[in-house]
Design the sequence.
């Protein structure tokens, strides 16, 4: 199969997207990606991330690829889990303590930091709004994160807890485990007692 046809097939199998590392693994030189982008056969979203012209650009997927150490969190995770109807003005990602977020901030991300002991709690994969796989904290971790955060509207927090409880997939034990690890046990208990 000709390399351009092979590339198109790979991209179609991957929702219209490909990373430079995926192309290399398939035996397609990275220089070809640049050539095809220059010819308008595909578009470059981020360094090393390309998509077909007929596909919507997936900013979240591109950011996840570029900042692979990060996890979508806080207001962004609330939005992804449908626990708020507010579309985030800026995406928020949490990084392990010690990670230099300068590049992420330059891309317009709001960045948070978490100690190594709590960073992996609740990390899961889900589909971005465009259908590509991204890393995000689960709903229970997200609820605990917003209890820790400063500047989050208490009305948004209360609405998020109400929506979580209305969804029917409630895991109070997991919330309380995360709340203990994140040191927001009393706040979590208060919200749950009022709403349950």
Sequence:
């Amino acid at each position: 199969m000709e390399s351009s046809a092979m590339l198109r097939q790979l991209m179609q199998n991957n929702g219209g997207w490909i990373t430079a590392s995926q192309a290399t693994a398939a035996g397609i030189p990275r220089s070809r990606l640049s050539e095809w982008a220059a010819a308008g056969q595909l578009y470059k979203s981020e360094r090393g991330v390309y998509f077909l012209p007929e596909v919507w650009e997936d900013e979240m997927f591109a950011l996840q690829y570029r900042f692979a150490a990060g996890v979508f969190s806080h207001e962004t995770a609330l939005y992804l889990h449908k626990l708020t109807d507010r579309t985030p003005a800026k995406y928020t990602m949490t990084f392990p303590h010690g990670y230099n977020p300068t590049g992420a901030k330059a891309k317009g991300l709001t960045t948070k930091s978490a100690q190594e002991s709590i960073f992996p709690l609740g990390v899961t994969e889900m589909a971005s709004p465009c259908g590509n796989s991204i890393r995000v904290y689960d709903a229970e971790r997200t609820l605990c994160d917003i209890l820790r955060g400063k500047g989050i509207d208490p009305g948004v927090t209360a609405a998020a807890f109400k929506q979580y409880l209305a969804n029917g997939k409630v895991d109070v034990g997991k919330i309380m485990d995360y709340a203990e690890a994140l040191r927001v046990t009393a706040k979590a208990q208060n919200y749950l007692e009022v709403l349950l």
